[in-house]
Amino acid sequence: MRAKTVSEAVESRRTVRAFLPTPVPRDTILSILDRARMAPSGCNFQPWEATILTGEPLRALQAKMLEAPMQDPVEYDVQPKAITEEYRDRLRAIGALMYGAEGVGRDDAEGRRALGRRNLISFGAPVLLLCYFPRFMGPPQWSDVGMWLQTIMLLAREEGLDTCPQEALAIHARLIKAHIGVDDTTHIFFCGLGIGFRDAETDTNRHERPRVPLERQVRLIGF
Ligand SMILES: Cc1cc2nc3c(=O)[nH]c(=O)nc-3n(C[C@H](O)[C@H](O)[C@H](O)COP(=O)(O)O)c2cc1C
């Protein structure tokens, strides 16, 4: 289904963890990326940069990642070093739903490893966008890059495409940059974005995604 309104795009976007092998035309990807250039950024820096892979170059990268140990030191801390119980609970809740949809239990180490390996092959997405930017950029620019990625994710829905943002690939950031010819000294790797058509038949793409009630997140004053 193609989203026809922004609301439809927002409502139908979800992190897809099972893709069909159907290829995505180059022009569709280029059209999405071209339109996403209008995403906002502080100072109009437009700090985002990306390389997009499909076909053999993507398979070659995935084969390397599946063989490689996790890099040390890490590219960046995916989670804050100290989080409160409230945030830990949110993580546990989505983890239980996600693993539950796969039939992977809490103590199923092999099932968890298998899901980790599927993460490395972007859950079968035929296209992988690799997102990075200059190392000197700070927190405001990381946020700009997030807005660009969300713009891509919503435009993808309009094309009937789905996406999977992937911080997990940061465990192989240096390997990825070497594969695509990006200078590790000047650029930090942020995440991958798997792009393709969702497999609508599997429970993987159907589980609930809990959200915090609105009144816990925002305050309206003076209305
Ligand atoms: C920047 C970013 C990185 C993410 N990295 C991963 C990842 O590596 N693997 C994964 O399965 N999901 C990843 N996610 C998906 C989140 O788990 C997901 O957005 C969250 O649970 C809410 O679910 P939803 O996107 O389906 O609404 C990532 C999301 C974002 C925004």
UniProtKB/TrEMBL annotation:
Cite the entry's keywords alphabetically. Flavoprotein, FMN, Oxidoreductase
Which cofactors does this gene product need? Answer: FMN
Domain Nitroreductase: start-end pairs? 11-196
Q: Which Gene3D superfamilies match?
A: NADH Oxidase (3.40.109.10)
Instruction: Give the family from UniProt.
Output: Belongs to the nitroreductase family.
| Protein known as | Nitroreductase
Source organism of the structure: Sphingomonas natans
